[in-house]
Specification:
The chain is mostly helical and 76 residues long. The chain has three helices and no strands.
Length: 76
């Protein structure tokens, strides 16, 4: 499978999971409102996943560039 097909599958599964969680979350929401809520929440959730991954990568890169040993190790 190509990368696009895998990503599309992930998005569909994420959308379906959000719709089911909203529908059966205990608020008495019908399927129409649950699907609309999932339609709004899916891009937001995907953006949050992307942002977390990007911040982690940047933190790792910053750690590689700015590495300084502990003071005890510098004295050796």
């Amino acid at each position: 499978m190509s990368k696009r097909v895998k990503y599309a599958g992930f998005v569909l599964v994420f959308f379906a999971l959000l719709a089911v969680v909203i529908r059966f979350g205990g608020a008495g929401v019908g399927w129409g409102h649950a699907l609309l809520g999932a339609l709004v929440a899916t891009p937001l959730g995907l953006w949050m996943i992307w942002l977390r991954r990007r911040m982690t990568e940047q933190a790792q890169e910053w750690g590689r560039r700015k590495f300084r040993p502990w003071p005890e190790e510098r004295r050796r």
